[in-house]
Amino acid sequence: MPRYFIETAYKGTHFKGFQAQLNAISIQGEINKALQTILKDEIQTTTSSRTDAGVHALQNFLHFDTEQPLPSSIVYNLNSILHEDVLINRLMQVKDTAHARFDAIARDYTYHIVSRKQPFLRETAYFVPFPLDMGAMNEAAAILPTHKHFESFCKRNTDVKTFECRISSSFLEKKGEEIIYHVRSNRFLRGMVRAIIGTLILVGRKKISCNQFEEIIGSNDCSRADFSAPAHGLFLERVHYPDLFFEDTQKEKI
Fold it and tell me: Is 52 a catalytic residue?
């Protein structure tokens, strides 16, 4: 059966998360409904990454299968009926075995912080009204790629086979009035980025040292990390696939 990839972006403020669920509005659920409306068929999508309630994305992918012929205007049609905070950027036919989740090799997240009240960033950045030592935070952030086991940064009662992740990039930058944390990994655990940034903020406020930050990683004890950073500062920036993945799999771009 023909398979299609959808590239989407969204603001997560008004949704109960990404994953489709009964009796709650979600990004995946809205996309499924829009596809079903246009194609007059029962469409179920598979996603590359599930983001929590309130988290945003500049790029996420889903795939779905259908025998229905897709009109050339399908991207326009989808955007015309989707919630105003959800955007379809493109839709591509790919090889039938391509998988949005399992073929992804890395994901980039950012977390946005502002140090003074910003009404226009209220839903997309975390207001931290305390001085932050970015040098110390970057020193601690650079420790993360030297480790592989991140149980300390995973919420309790998470059903995973392993807590191992390969973090390849981790740093903070100042951009305008925002402090932005960047992190790339092959996979992320439940609540992981928010726990990392919450604990990095403790370093920035001089409540813990870089050595203590590393001790928290090695403790495998999530009660020592800080999970208090709110969801609205978090963005899924990019989902990475192997080089030439779309060129090798793509049959048609719509």
Answer: yes
